[in-house]
Amino acid sequence: MPGYAVSLVASSLFVISSVAGATEEFSVVRLSDHVFAVVRNDPPGFAVESNSGFIECRDHLVIVDAQSNEAATRRTLEAIRKRANKPVRYVVNTHWHDDHIVGNRIYREAFADVRFVAHQASLTYLPGDGKQNRDKFHRAIPDALAGMRKTLESGRTKAGQPLTDEQRASLASDIHLAEGYLTVPDDFVPMLADVPVSDKFEIREPGCAVDVLALGSAHTTGDLVVRVADVVFVGDMIGAPVPLVGADQSRVREWSGTLKRARDLNAKVIVPGHGPVMRDYQQLDRISLLMATIVKRVDEARAGAETLEVARNRIDISDLRKQFAGDSLVNGALFDAYVTAPAVTNAWNIQ
What we know:
5-stranded mixed beta sheet; alpha/beta; Metallo-beta-lactamase, Chain A
């Protein structure tokens, strides 16, 4: 989404992808008596859609994250209503990227009194840099889509290699999700937070207790965590199969510390922004170590290099790539695009 070092243009270059509709779009997962996750079933790819969640209070609901377009958000809301047909009082956006905030408008249309909770920094980012990033991102989508469709039809990568089944699944999913992005109008104006959070916001309503916490920067400088009992929604500070790093927006040097504070919440269930529900700390710890290791290797390279271009040739993170991607061509391309290049750049440029 806007702000990442790699946009959908990368999809047409790396050409990865899916038979859209081969599986259900998302699954509603009960995490406790009153807490649910809406987990996307898309195969790994360059185009993403956010997981969501909802907390059922006695008289209303608290939603965690919307989607990248109105139609996807309507389908999510329909599924939520089948489980808990109560008015939505709060929508919490874990950060400001489009796949988490565009659908806010659907909740405003359905529930006039809904309040939007987001990081304080979103109030300046969304109408400023956010608009510029969104405009750039959307201008790139038509050409990216054309390239992806051509690749899928040809059955071969840019390098001329036959597409694997994994690549076909990923590419078809990218196309499907990108078509959803195109439905967002050019004059889209995001809904800003009614409740800006710089530290903590507590929702204490009959039947539920929810804490919205600003634990520090990681995926962006506007990350929030939502805790309810033994469940935490962490947005994109955790993702699978690889974390999504933005060369400009992320904070690689702070990421591990922020994850440690999230770990200290002692949750039994973690809901990432992308990927399956997690019932242990394996992915959290892997991402924390990844970011700390990248910082260490960047600093070691800096000692003998005056520029990032020179240092980059000395920074080898192939061992880390193997841990996250294994032998998967798709996951390897994602790691290269969302970690190798942007994370090293971020750690070098942002102290």
